[in-house]
Amino acid sequence: MASPPLQSEPGPAGAPFHIMVKPIGPKCNLDCQYCFYLEKEVLWGDGEKWKMDDATLEAYVRRYIEAQPADPVTFAWQGGEPTLCGREFFEKVVYWQRQYGKGRQIDNAFQTNGTLIDDDWAAFFKRENFLIGLSVDGPAELHDAYRVKRNGQGSHAEVMRGLDFLKKHKVEFNTLTCVNRANMERGAEVYQFLKDIGSRYMQFIPIIERLPDAEAERLGLSHSTPPKFTEEDENLEAPVTDWSVQPKGYGRFMWNIFKRWVQKDVGRIYVQLFDVALGKWADVPGGICVFNETCGRAMALEHDGSMYSCDHYVYPDYKLGNLREKSIREMVDSTFQSGFGQDKERTLPAYCRRCPYKFACNGGCPKHRFLLTPDDEPGLNYLCSGYRFVFGKMDPYLQAMARLYHDGQPPADVMRMIREKRLPKPS
Questions:
Q1: Catalytic residue among 107, 311, 343, 375
Q2: Which of 43, 265, 351, 416 could join 269 via S-S bond, C-beta 3.0 to 4.6 A?
Q3: Is 110 left (phi over 0), alpha (psi -120 to 50) or beta?
Q4: Which stretches of 46-122 are assigned E, i.e. beta strand?
Q5: CB neighbours of 345 closer than 8 A, spacing ≥ 6?
Q6: Contact 148, 155 (CB under 8 A)
Q7: In whole angstroms, what is the distance from residue 175 CA to residue 136 CA?
């Protein structure tokens, strides 16, 4: 696998950053109805040419390692469906990671629909210590509502078969569940299902797609005037797809999980939203871009080497450049990208700044800020009422857990406090 010398990075970036790599673009063997990334097919044309070539891959592996200022250096592989690249592709990945890593800690996170995982894939994942993110939306009835194959049939059985191979080889995995119109009122059932299949690390992603997409104007489309938010709205009538989660539906979904988790599973099951929320209540630095004051340190790299400001902003106006022409450091630390990240805080409406939960959500993802506030100011997050609902319900328990943390006690002691009736049983 000898290769000619590659251009190196001019040095590490100014701060740690994250890149989500799409090594085969939007190409996928499934046809999930809610997948926002399938629309990217129009940007690149012939799908047979979407696989990242060896020169681009090697350049990315080397320069990503060089540009990261601190360990661990975490590679995130997504899609589309990354298993469509083939195992040989990822054998090259780990070969070049060893060659250019020079003793640094290298981690690999691999998000997959699981349908193509077999014995050989699972053995590779175990041998190379890949962390697998498995996309599953709950039991078959709920999962198959939108996560379908090209022939329209559900994919649940194939996902469970792939999971069996991961378990057989003892591959570390977590689950990513999309919260949508079909499963939003069945949070408890989804949570129990994920526990039953062995998931101990859970991420729940709200599905929100504006009609048409807020950035679709760039393709010659238009959209209606932003709807106005009122706190009394049960389920806001907004121009979103019929599979999009409703704001209060998302809040109820997460609360139905939290009230079970906080009584039995703290310290045993890890739910991303709850972990992030506890950090906010305990005033601990860190978190995820969605809930941080600013963003801009999580970018997306497409199969052709083009880098974009964010996975949700893979549009021409947010293209930072191509690693064949620019260094990763130059793109990551660019004035444009810095401005993109700072805009999250600069454009926050006054209504949000007055909110008692501003510290927790910071306005959420900019992609979902398409409502008018009660004061007719633009830029309110579609999920505002859902966030207010679930944060308000979780507040007394998170306050108790934060106090435990600062007193040097395990936050899991909140379960004992509920049993001893020092905190009310959540309902």
A1: 311
A2: 265
A3: beta
A4: 73-77, 106-112
A5: 293, 294, 362
A6: yes
A7: 7
- Give the length of the chain: 427
What residues does 307 pair with on adjacent strands? 301, 321
Residue 372 near residue 380 (C-beta atoms within 8 A): yes
Annotated catalytic residue 144: no
Radius of gyration, alpha carbons of the chain: 22
Predicted confidence band of residue 221 (pLDDT cuts 50, 70, 90): very low
Residue 106 amino acid letter: I
Q: Residue for token digits 């059932």? A: 189
What would the two tokens of residue 224 be? 């209606």
8 Å CB contact between 110 and 77: yes
Query: How far is it, in rounded angstroms, from Cα 57 to Cα 88?
Result: 12
- pTM equals 0.92
* Alpha carbon distance 146, 31 (integer Å): 8
Q: Which residues contact 374 (CB under 8 A, 6 or more apart)?
A: 228, 229, 230, 231, 351
| Residue 362, beta-bridge partner list | none
- 4 φ, ψ to 5°? -70, 160
Distance CA 112, CA 121 (A): 12
Q: Which of 1-15, 123-137, 142-156, 396-410 has the lowest mean pLDDT?
A: 1-15
Question: Which amino acid would we find at residue 345?
Answer: E
**CA 187 from centre of chain:** 19
Identify the CA nearest to 43 among candidates 323, 318, 316.
316
Take residue 358 and report the two structure tokens written for it: 């501003």
From CA 285, how far away is CA 282, in angstroms rounded?
Answer: 9
- Reduced to 3 states, what is the DSSP secondary structure of residue 228? strand
- The CA-based dihedral angle spanning residues 394, 395, 398, 403, taken in that order and rounded to the nearest 10 degrees: -160
How does pLDDT run across 68-126, given as a tens digit for each residue?
Answer: 999 999 999 998 999 999 999 999 999 999 999 999 999 999 999 999 999 999 999 99
Q: Indicate the helix (H) or strand (E) that contains 359.
A: helix 358-361
Kindly report the number of other CB atoms within 10 A of residue 151's CB atom: 6
DSSP-derived 3-state class of residue 153: coil
